[in-house]
Amino acid sequence: MGYPRDLLSSRSIIKRGNxxxxxxxxxxxxxxxxxxxxxxTILASPRLGAKFVDYVITMHExxxxxxxxxxxxxxxFVYCMEGQVKASANDEAFHLTQGGYLYCPSGVxxxxxxxxxxxxxxxxxxxxxxxxxxxxxxxxxVSGNVNEIAAIDYDDMANVKLQDLLPTDLAFDMNFHxxxxxxxxxxxxxxTHYQEHGAIMLSGEGxxxxxxxxxxxxxxxxxxxxxxxxxxxxxxxxxxxxxLYSKDCNRDASL
Length: 255
Ligand code: UGY
Ligand code: MN
Fold this sequence. Notes:
It is a single chain. The chain is an all-beta fold. The protein folds into two domains: about 30-145, Jelly Rolls (Sandwich), CATH 2.60.120.10; about 150-250, Jelly Rolls. Helix content is about 0%, strand content about 50%. The chain contains no helices and 20 strands. It has strands spanning about 15, 20, 35-40, 50-70, 75-80, 85-90, 90-95, 100-105, 110-115, 120-130, 140-145, 150-155, 155-165, 175-180, 195-205, 205-210, 215-220, 220-225, 230-235, 240-250. Strands 3, 4, 5, 6, 7, 8, 9, 10 and 11 form a nine-stranded antiparallel β-sheet that branches. An eight-stranded antiparallel β-sheet has the order 1-2-18-15-20-14-13-12, with no helix packed on it. Strands 17-16-19 form a three-stranded antiparallel β-sheet, with no helix packed on it. The N and C termini lie far apart (about 50 Å). The structure holds (2S)-amino(carbamoylamino)ethanoic acid (UGY) and manganese (II) ion. (2S)-amino(carbamoylamino)ethanoic acid binds near residues 191, 197, 225, 231 and 247. (2S)-amino(carbamoylamino)ethanoic acid binds near residues 197 and 225.
């Protein structure tokens, strides 16, 4: 990096509690104990108004967290964007390649280790788990790969596909999804909802409406969408505009 080649400028937009765009160019490295040989950036967090914490991590050769990630009462999720990682939980190993993911419920520690000499890129998440009021069901460890999950038409539109990564079971208080829009595809309406999202753009380009501002977004960008922020997108460019995002679910609003 060093001296800038032009006037300093940024595509970042930060509106705490409402929405935020954090493009890769502005991201800085954070040290988080337990992660070794990793470039890690904390994205959304309670400081931004989110109830969860999202990170992007580049694991270099030998990159790992063998001290364990997770804490009591907290659920965690990791998604492999590029490369391959050996993940483990409850003494079970999961070899995650591009599109692979692992969810660990509260009480289960996640261990991560780069499984190649080249860099591996991960998206990581944690949130305090909200149990069911009667504690009748609790979530379990889930692993899979989005390349093996059926993509269904989103709201009867053949040019927009949705994938659900976690079970649609009341035990889970959140889910991860991938939405993929063919160029020209769009949301059926501008959503305004109670739930919040953290979203990492996996491919393509779109123009995103956030609180009625139209903002160009592309692969690598991160979006935080707070509760009730109006949101929708039109996909542009030449390849599908796809993003991985979290959404809270299955729980009543608390007073
Ligand atoms: O599930 C959702 O709320 C999703 N359609 N939101 C979004 O893409 N911004
Ligand atoms: Mn939404």
